[in-house]
Amino acid sequence: MKTTERATTRRPRPGEARLEGQPVSSGVAIGYAAIAHDPALPPIDTTRRDCDPAHERARLFEAITRSTAQLRRLHDRLALLPEDGQVEIGSLLEVYRRMLGPSRLRRGIEALLGQGMLAEAAVQHETEALAAFMLSPPGRPAPEGEDAVAARRRAGEFREIGRRLVRNLSGTPYRSFSTIPDGAILVAEQLRPADAALIDPSRIAAVVTEEGGSTGHTAILLRALGIPAVLAVHGLLARVGRRTRLVVDGTTGRVIIRPSTRTAAAARVEVAAYARERQALGRLRRLPARLSSGEVLTLQANLEIPAELPMIAQSGAAGIGLLRSEFLFMNAETLPDEARQEALYRPLVEAMAGDPVTIRVVDWGSEKNSDALTQAGIGTGSDVNPALGLRGIRLLLRHRALLETQFAAILRAATAGPVRVLLPMVSSPAELHEAREIYARVGRRLRRKGVDIPDPLPPLGIMIETPAAALMADVLAQEAEFLAIGTNDLTMYTLAADRAATDVAGLYDPLHPAVLRLVRLAADAGLRQRRPVSLCGEMASDPLAVPLLVGLGVRSFSMHASAVPRVKRAVRAAAMDDCRRMACRALEAADGPEVSAMLMDYAATLHHAGDG
């Protein structure tokens, strides 16, 4: 079901209203609302410039000390949360802790205190300034797509620690969930990550908020807790009171207020059906990803931040098919050195217990924000169109020290388990050849130093993200040891449409035959050169699209961990002959909607066959 940023009212029956928001954590719940109000912060005088700097610094130090103690108590409470929740909130608390230490944020606040500003005003001013810089860096294009998601998350981190400091400076209390009845549905205007960490998933049936989004830390934590949740339900609090009965569908984003007897009965059926589906998907974890005709595929998981590791372990994924290393630079004030990077890679490789890990070297461009890279003068250009500018391997070859450090750290960590190294945004054989020479040189340097690294070096592969790379895949595959098709960027560049740009988002369609033909070219090139070919991007997470991609020649997929069970179920129901027939029809289709309709028909056929 299509969701919207703002909720809409749908033909309510008498006494019943239906709203929609952003689905965040799947599942269905029925229960009574428990509204948790957040005590408002007091007004802050931003005009004063006559405060005693020494006094305000003492107040700030006391607030930092109190905030640090609160974060420590939250960390101590992690043992009560599910494992996924422990990792996610633990990583976030570490980010907050670093912000309270010697950091750019703290230096900025203390500089404002030296100008006679009130501590609360200095905290608010500096956290908002840093948040604004993340969202719209001066002299550079605003982040788009996945980069915009990361920027909003980073801005939220600054604002959250700012609110915590202001609360402690002003003595404003925090909200508590301890009085909420068991089985209630938590309703709030907004839920912050630290609030979500206080939720007991055995007591709270679901979470609904009026604000928020599906990509922030709160959403990630709610998914980790396994609680049905819908955020950004506009107009929610105006319609819901204490003890209002609700039905919450975290899969579709639907919230039903005061459900009728019939609606409530249907919701109870959905609750039971969802529980059965989770059990069925759970049983798939240990089963192979084998087509009904016998062919075995490889389903792996993407990893964007270390907090997602437990979800990968629980999904049944056969390794990490795409480890995005950008997280190393997002929260760093200085460039992470070789030792720091190895210390982050090695535990991830070890945790996979022999399953392969594909690490993509940093894919950066001028539309992304990083204090560390900015201070080093890397990726600070003001490209008119960042997507067509200095990014990916182009930027890394311009700043070779960055690439050499990352290569060395990965090679050191590769002794902990099977690793592959992936180069982003390669569009010509010359780029690959130059990167391979650097890779080999780094390996020789480490061996001369007596460092233990794998022999031979881990495979070096490339992303197929542009039409140029797909059209030249047969040449690139002669030197690349594996290919990874990135369908998100490949779709954007093929159709000249950015999915984050409202005016042309409707043109962005991964099922467009032009995109599918390029996927087929890359898959065929890998087969001819006997190179493994994998596919990542949103298409890999779509149970309807994967059988078609199998027919195009792809045998390995990397997706968000939560998608693995459903994709595996679709794979086990499909037969190779059907996949190939679909591929032939799709390549001859006129447009994406025609391909989509064909996939829906095929899925319906399988469903009816299963019923029979």
From TrEMBL:
Q: Which residues bind Mg(2+)?
A: 465, 489
The segments labelled Disordered in the record are 1-23
Asked if Magnesium is a keyword of the record, the answer is yes
Q: Cite the active-site annotation.
A: 217, 536
Q: What is its EC number?
A: 2.7.3.9
One Pfam family name is: PEP-utilizers_C
Q: Give the record's keywords alphabetically.
A: Cytoplasm, Kinase, Magnesium, Metal-binding, Phosphotransferase system, Sugar transport, Transferase, Transport
> Which portions of the chain have biased composition (kind: Basic and acidic residues)?
1-19
Give the main EC class: transferase
Q: Which cofactor does it need?
A: Mg(2+)
Q: Which residues form the PEP-utilising enzyme C-terminal domain?
A: 280-574
GO CC annotation terms, alphabetical: cytoplasm
Q: Does the keyword Methyltransferase apply?
A: no
List the GO biological process terms.
phosphoenolpyruvate-dependent sugar phosphotransferase system
User: What InterPro entries is this protein classified in?
Assistant: PEP-util_enz_mobile_dom, PEP-utilizing_PTS_enzyme, PEP_util_C, Phosphohistidine_dom_sf, PTS_EI, PTS_EI-like, PTS_EIN, PtsI_HPr-bd_sf
Source superkingdom: Bacteria
Q: Which reaction does it catalyse?
A: L-histidyl-[protein] + phosphoenolpyruvate = N(pros)-phospho-L-histidyl-[protein] + pyruvate
Tell me the residue numbers annotated for binding phosphoenolpyruvate.
Answer: 324, 360, 488-489, 499
Location comes to: Cytoplasm
Which part of the chain is the Phosphotransferase system enzyme I N-terminal domain? 20-134
Q: Explain the purpose of this protein.
A: General (non sugar-specific) component of the phosphoenolpyruvate-dependent sugar phosphotransferase system (sugar PTS). This major carbohydrate active-transport system catalyzes the phosphorylation of incoming sugar substrates concomitantly with their translocation across the cell membrane. Enzyme I transfers the phosphoryl group from phosphoenolpyruvate (PEP) to the phosphoryl carrier protein (HPr).
The similarity annotation says:
Belongs to the PEP-utilizing enzyme family.
Q: State the PANTHER family in the record.
A: PHOSPHOENOLPYRUVATE-PROTEIN PHOSPHOTRANSFERASE (PTHR46244)
Q: Which NCBIfam families does the entry link to?
A: PTS_I_fam
Name of this chain's protein = Phosphoenolpyruvate-protein phosphotransferase
Source organism of the structure: Komagataeibacter nataicola
- The gene name reads ptsP
